[in-house]
């Protein structure tokens, strides 16, 4: 069942649906209904802490209802898509549940995205509007929203948290109506929200997650990680990412009755005082932030007063030597994982031997997760050998939103998702990530599509050929290097000239190259393709961070 345009969503086959329902993986409640159950269970308990706001479960439930009615009064109909581009704030949670409550579909855009990505996602989703902050980290999101409104037909509603300018203020949305008519209740099989892919092949794609698969994802992850109502989860990474949202993240914490604490800034000078003020017990980080926190922990006088017991790390492989520092420097246990917004999530377990926690990315969280490791010919590799990870299961999608041609390449005929990650599986079932086959650069936990960046650079009037590669970096894991071939007689551009050109095209800052170099020609492989391995070998030693 779906209120989305015909063909936009690829459902699970009937046989899989029957199995996942019969075996108890999928429930019958939408995410909005689940919030009502959570609020009824512990109405006075603290649900959300952010900035100067503290919401109990009952208050969160009431504000989500008010937001839902405000959207409905503003013309948002069931099935309509609405971009949500909010930083880590209480309104992120209330807007998310408000849209779910009126059966609309939130499209979770990251605060770092700019005109290029936002306009593309608005067109792809056929969004009717957006919810944005007034300003965040010096950037005026109201102006961006107006640019998208002028460019995309049907994109009419702009709601602003903070100073609205000429748009609709969030406070008006909350108080827009006193109606008590029943809100629409979506079927649990419907698409609940659309996540943004890491953009590993060209422009970002949209990942449809249904109410029932995402609810299962959240609760299964919470159980594996040992979350309870006594836990307080600190959201450091952008809340619109799958990792801090649902792995177990915001949704998993609320599902068990815990407290969600949000911070807009993940740096130690902002977070460490917060850990002293709030009884935060769990948080999730990408490896570059783990290093930043560990390096700063020596000067953290309040560590003894922190309640932090557990650190979840994902987004990229954690170096074993850095894993060893988590307990010593931060005073908490470590869980490593590999996950993807498309579905599969694997974690080490709290009772795993230390050597598996420090050097693997864990085991799948669900008994129904199916994993294959295959070679280039599509056949399974020998046990313990490295190959591409293929997966399917009760919370792994069967197709991207409105992307039939890409889906034909990304999925096998029998429904396995080709992840592009290179892994090997230990006899214990633990996965070890060895790299990837997709042309994507993991810069500090953010995926940068080489193909997307190359397309933009080829539009520069002086560039006739380009290759974008990732270079190793001790802090970010990888940095982005653009290797340009210029037209004859063209002056060699400075790096800041190239980044300024890309910035004018509306690219997110994390996608801009850290380094720009020029060559007369690109090296080629035996089949005539750019030899990116040779470029990495040439420039790796001289890689510098922006």
TrEMBL record:
Occurrences of domain AMP-binding enzyme C-terminal (ranges): 452-529
Q: Which Gene3D superfamilies match?
A: 3.30.300.30, N-terminal domain of ligase-like
Residue ranges occupied by any AMP-dependent synthetase/ligase domain in the UniProt entry: 35-401
Q: Which superkingdom?
A: Bacteria
Record's signal peptide: none
Show the InterPro entries listed in the entry: AMP-bd_C (IPR025110), AMP-bd_C_sf (IPR045851), AMP-dep_synth/lig_dom (IPR000873), ANL_N_sf (IPR042099), ATP-dep_AMP-bd_enzyme (IPR050237)
By what name is this protein known? AMP-binding protein
The organism of origin for this protein: Pseudonocardia humida
């Amino acid at each position: 069942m779906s209120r989305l345009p015909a063909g936009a969503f690829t459902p699970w086959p009937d046989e899989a649906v029957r199995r996942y329902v019969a075996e108890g993986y999928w429930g019958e409640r939408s995410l909005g209904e689940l919030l009502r159950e959570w609020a009824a269970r512990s109405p006075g308990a603290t649900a959300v802490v952010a900035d100067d706001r503290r919401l109990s479960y009952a208050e969160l439930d009431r504000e989500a209802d008010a937001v839902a009615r405000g959207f409905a009064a503003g013309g948002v109909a069931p099935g309509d898509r609405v971009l949500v581009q909010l930083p880590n704030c209480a309104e992120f949670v209330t807007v998310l549940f408000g849209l779910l409550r009126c059966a609309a579909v939130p499209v979770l855009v990251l605060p770092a995205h700019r005109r290029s990505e936002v306009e593309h996602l608005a067109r792809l989703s056929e969004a009717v509007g957006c919810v944005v902050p007034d300003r965040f980290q010096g950037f005026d999101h109201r102006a961006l929203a107006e640019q998208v409104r002028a460019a995309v037909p049907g994109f009419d509603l702009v709601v602003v948290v903070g100073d609205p300018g000429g748009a609709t203020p969030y406070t008006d949305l909350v108080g827009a109506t006193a109606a008590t008519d029943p809100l629409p209740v979506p079927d649990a099989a419907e698409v609940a929200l659309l996540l943004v892919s890491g953009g590993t092949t060209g422009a970002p794609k949209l990942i449809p997650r249904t109410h029932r698969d995402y609810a299962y994802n959240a609760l299964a992850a919470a159980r594996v990680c040992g979350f309870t109502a006594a836990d307080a989860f600190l959201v450091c990474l952008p809340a619109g990412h799958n990792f801090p949202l649902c792995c177990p993240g915001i949704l998993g914490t609320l599902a068990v009755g815990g407290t969600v604490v949000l911070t807009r800034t993940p740096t130690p000078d902002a977070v460490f005082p917060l850990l002293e003020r709030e009884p935060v017990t769990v948080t999730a980080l990408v490896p570059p932030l783990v290093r930043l926190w560990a390096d700063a922990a020596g000067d953290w006088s309040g560590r003894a007063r922190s309640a932090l017991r557990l650190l979840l790390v994902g987004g990229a492989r954690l170096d074993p030597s850095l894993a060893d520092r988590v307990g010593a420097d931060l005073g908490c246990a470590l869980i490593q994982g590999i996950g993807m917004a498309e579905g599969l999530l694997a974690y080490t377990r709290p009772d795993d031997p230390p050597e598996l926690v420090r050097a693997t990315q864990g085991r799948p969280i669900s008994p129904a997760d199916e994993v294959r490791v295959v070679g280039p010919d599509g056949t399974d590799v020998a046990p313990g050998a490295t190959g591409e990870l293929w997966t399917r299961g009760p919370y792994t999608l069967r197709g991207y939103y409105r992307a039939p041609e890409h889906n034909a390449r990304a999925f096998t005929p029998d429904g396995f998702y080709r992840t592009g990650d290179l892994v090997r599986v230990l006899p214990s079932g633990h996965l070890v990530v060895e790299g990837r086959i997709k042309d994507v650069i993991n810069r500090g936990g953010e995926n940068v599509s080489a193909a997307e960046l190359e397309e933009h650079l080829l539009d520069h009037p002086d560039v006739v050929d380009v290759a974008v590669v990732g270079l190793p970096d001790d802090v970010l894991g990888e940095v982005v290097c653009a290797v340009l071939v210029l037209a004859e007689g063209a002056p060699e551009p400075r790096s800041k000239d190239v980044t300024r050109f890309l910035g004018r095209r509306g690219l997110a800052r994390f996608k801009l190259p850290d380094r720009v170099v020029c060559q007369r020609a690109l090296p080629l492989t035996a089949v005539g393709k750019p030899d990116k391995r040779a470029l990495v070998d040439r420039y790796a030693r001289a890689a510098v961070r922006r």
